[in-house]
Amino acid sequence: MQTIQANGYEIYFNENGYEILNKHLNEYNYSSIFILVDSNTNEKCLLRFLSFLATEKNIEIIEIEAGESEKNITTCVEIWSILTDLGADRKSVLINLGGGVITDIGGFVASTFKRGVDFINIPTSLLAMVDASIGGKNGVDLGNLKNQIGVISVPKLVLVDTDYLNTLPQNEMRSGLAEMLKHGLIADAAYWSAFKDLSKTDFADFDGLVHRSIEIKNNIVLQDPTENGIRKALNFGHTLGHAIESYCLENEDKKTLLHGEAIAIGMIMESFISWQTNLLSETDYNEIKEVITSIFDRVFFDENDLQPIIDLLIHDKKNEYGKIQFALLDGIGAIKINQKADNDLITKSFLDYNS
């Protein structure tokens, strides 16, 4: 697959990417190499990665527990302390080998340790490949509030090796698929159409679908690296999706949702709002709802859930002057940012989703 030029770094693919990685490590003459993994990628991905690594530099492995609950400042302090104890300096490099939690927290740790050391992302989940590892957003959650603390800082390079997808359970693959669906809905109607009937999708060309998804996100980020304008388009489904994800995290009687599972719900609801505000046709809305619900399990929200979720919307990072801002579909394949919706309409979106 062709290399993608991002904002100050490149995105390389599969085995060719390891040649570039090794060349980079040798040219930059790092004092030491640290690899951040979680318990899953340590078991399932690390040996493959190390088999491609050609360096005589000292390598240290730092492992954290897997899961969104680890993406917090306490874990950062633990990693910073380990880096310090192991003698990391400004010429060290941190390689983040894992899913979205690892690339998010690893990028944040590297960007703040000694005021910034180099980092490299090796995403191992579909979600991390098409979304989390791309674009320079790094950070952690504040309690159950998603991505409230962070920086925008780009890696030295990203290496996407789709062989790591063979280690994923089906629910993790679906979680990443949500972001791919989003990319089609906001920017490429033809790409969206490729997912209308997954039974007819040629997964022999899945690498091509991954590459195109990364391309769509990267093209948007190139126009607006710091999210002052069009990059907000990438938050379609995330305003409600993040609130739902946070609510389910903090309520023991609710099933904890993977990021993509929550975003899938958010995309249906925000598509409903797009229809109700005359940006999207009813036909397109019904198509979106049908496709997404055919892939993702339904989650029921009762009346007591709605207000607490709506209350969480105020923490969304797109908000300005205390006003909730949505990125809404302007037809399939186009987007309008900085859109408003009142609480009554948001409530209707939940009721429609339940129906």
TrEMBL record:
Domain 3-dehydroquinate synthase N-terminal: from-to ranges: 62-174
InterPro entries on file: Dehydroquinate_synthase, DHQ_synth_AroB, DHQ_synth_fam, DHQS/DOIS_N, DHQS_C
EC number from the UniProt entry: 4.2.3.4
Transmembrane segments: none
Keywords: Cobalt, Lyase, Metal-binding, NAD, Nucleotide-binding, Zinc
UniProt GO molecular function: 3-dehydroquinate synthase activity
Domain 3-dehydroquinate synthase C-terminal: 176-319
Keyword Lyase in record: yes
Cofactor(s) in the UniProt record: NAD(+); Co(2+)
Origin: domain of life: Bacteria
Pfam families the UniProt entry points to: DHQ_synthase, DHQS_C
Known role: Catalyzes the conversion of 3-deoxy-D-arabino-heptulosonate 7-phosphate (DAHP) to dehydroquinate (DHQ).
PANTHER family given in the database record: 3-DEHYDROQUINATE SYNTHASE
Official protein name in the record: 3-dehydroquinate synthase
Organism of this sequence: Flavobacterium aureirubrum
